[in-house]
Give the backbone structure.
Amino acid sequence: MTTWHDWQRSWDRQQEWYLPDREERFRVMLDLVEAVAGPAPRVLDLACGTGSISERLLARLPGAVSVGVDVDPALLAIARGHFADEPRLTLVTADLNDPGWAKPLPDGGAFDAVLTSTALHWLGSDTLVRLYGDLAGLVRPGGLFVNADHMPQPDTPLLNAADRARQHARQERERAEGVLDWAAWWRAAADDPALAEAVAARFAIHGDHADGESHPAEWHTARLVGAGFREAGVAWRSVSDALVAAVR
């Protein structure tokens, strides 16, 4: 029988099919959190999915506490099952497209750090700019926001094309070894009686995967400063992705 822990591991592996350096970006993210907030930060795991960031945060910093926010009922079901015995994580259902999304958060704002990965590209530009303003009000002065996501560089088309070809070749090898892509993973989840109802509800909310608008890292840093963060910069990047960090 497939367990919640199996589904959490399966989600991680599916995401790694798209992001082979996923663990590296998590490491850099947590390096920054520890440097800025110390060993016992209060963290908001934004668009948390199955809780991948929180799992790594709590393993690395046992004194940390995390609030995970997402709207996806299937991913939250996996997270709730996987973290059922973890008192340091609180899971909240909220839709970032809703201007009132932060109202259900426990104890208001004053987070030491807000972390998110491979999620905010789902939002339209206007919604993302509004969200950055919301986050400026939730992060304590001196606290940190980190967003790891697809942030392509339009002025390097040759590098972009070479990277796409390399990634495609790797993905085809891994697919032949049985690694699930996004669509296959969701089909498998829908076939599990424990998840079928939540998966149906998820597709009623989101439909098929439809990204918002991707922007270069510099677009994000400028809008974070405009939203009220004191500074923002690129802490890590690959050819097509980047990790942007901003200090409140």
Remarks:
- The mean pLDDT is 95.
